[in-house]
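Bug #2210: token dump truncated for Coenzyme A biosynthesis bifunctional protein CoaBC?
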Amino acid sequence: LPLNGKKVLITAGPTHEAIDPVRYLGNKSTGTMGFELAKKAADLGAQVFLIAGPTALTVAHHSISLIRVTSAEEMYQAVHQRFATVNIAIGAAAVADYRPKEIAVQKIKKKSDAPLTLALERTKDILADMGKQKVHQYVVGFALESQDGLKNAKIKLQKKNLDAIVLNSLEDSGAGFGSNTNKVTFIDKNLVVKAFNLKAKSEVASDIWAEIIQRIDA
Ligand code: C5P
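Reproduced locally. Full output below:
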């Protein structure tokens, strides 16, 4: 099998950033794309660390270690602990870009009718960190863009020092969050571009792995 002996790390799903004991900031990611990539990698012979934010999904495969986390910081720590040991890493998670600067110890009570302002701070960029740390690893990111997709994905690829990036366009219907289908474009670090049709996320996972395998073998 093409991924025999390879260790793969995949981040998946959203993150939840606590506001107080009962509230959080989140997003609509379901984790489907990351879980499909993990299953495909395992079927292709890899040993997989699947680091997933809060998701209803589950997976049972003897080659997949599922590590569940909640926040961007926890996801960062889980990735950091394992990154040096893997051959390939894919950032498929929709990591929060900001988190509340302070987590209230008690549930925040409504006071007057005045607006409430939450101060936010940046989270760590887990993928950019992998791009910085990488030695032999092949690192792949995702880009979800609402406009100028190709241009922004290429900028992201270079800025985060990735080997490839998978663009999902918000301009394509049936693609992205909450859908079982996706339409992606694979772009490698030499800026070779391959566009795929809209298809089931499980098939998209096969396409992405075919592109990666072709490049790590070369
Ligand atoms: O910069 P942007 O968020 O658009 O980049 C998206 C890519 O970066 C995705 O692969 C996502 O998993 C990753 N990312 C990350 N940590 C963050 C933000 C994004 O790993 N804090």
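Output looks complete on our side. Residues 11, 72, 91, 93, 95, 97, 123-127, 141-143, 156 surround cytidine-5'-monophosphate (CB under 6 Å). Marking as cannot-reproduce; reopen if the truncation happens again.
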